[in-house]
Amino acid sequence: MTPAQQPDGYLAMPPTGSGNPVLVLHAWWGLNDTIRAVCDRLADAGFVAFAPDLYHGQVTDDIAEAERLSQTLFDNLDRPRAEVATAASFLAQRTGQPDAPLAVIGFSLGAFFALDFSVSDPEHVRSVVVFYGTRPGLDFSNARAAYLGHFAEEDQFEAQEDIDALEEALKRAGRPVTFYRYSGTGHWFFEPERPDAFNEAAAQLAWERTLEFLRQPANE
Asked: Closest Cα to residue 31, out of 54, 63, 7, 64?
């Protein structure tokens, strides 16, 4: 098989050179240092991690600019959806497991695309982790993944009713689902680059729970 060309993005390999694949989807800031660090931490834990750059080199820490950049994706959803699928295919080939199910982690904006991808390609997504992000109105009846969610206690960007609706939709579809809500936190509590929101204790607990979830046997 001809090796796939790496799409725009960041690849992190474990010291052993092999491991289970994890696709990491960035928040509306773009492929910043936080997302690269997540990939590196996953690699240190034994996973092969790849984060596609859906903004193709653009990164911001300004909310207004992040809103503008994210809107460019929603204005043409076919493009980012195709890029997520291409990234997943590259990652599967890079691990030498082109047909193996993979895990997907999405942050905020990335959570939307992680949930979306678990429905559009159910055969290849075994587990999904979302950080303070949902995907309203999605039908999970054909999904095959298990789901883990990390949500803030007070979140100005993610309504509690949307979180509850997502949890209910997953349960109705018979999917394994565990959602955690972290007291004293707001949106971006996992991201050190947002010092106004970062909560070290909650971020560490969410990370430990994520690794435990990813190490579970593939969902049947």
From this structure: 54
Query: Is beta strand 21-25 parallel, antiparallel or unpaired with respect to 102-107?
Result: parallel
Cα–chain-centroid distance for residue 30?
Answer: 13
Residue type, 16: T
Encoding tokens for residue 89? 């295919």
DSSP string for 39-92: HHHHHHTT-EEEEE-TTTT-----HHHHHHHHHHHHTTTHHHHHHHHHHHHHHH
Cα angle, residue 51 at apex, residues 4 and 61 outer, rounded to 5°: 145
Order of strands across the sheet that contains 9-12: 9-12, 48-52, 21-25, 102-107, 125-131, 146-152, 177-182
Tell me the three state secondary structure of residue 215.
Answer: coil
Per-residue pLDDT of the chain (220 residues; tens, 9 = 90+): 455 689 999 999 999 988 999 999 999 999 999 999 999 999 999 999 999 999 999 999 999 999 999 999 999 999 999 999 999 999 988 887 777 779 999 999 999 999 999 999 999 999 999 999 998 889 999 999 999 999 999 999 999 999 999 999 999 999 999 999 999 999 999 999 999 999 999 999 999 999 999 998 764 4
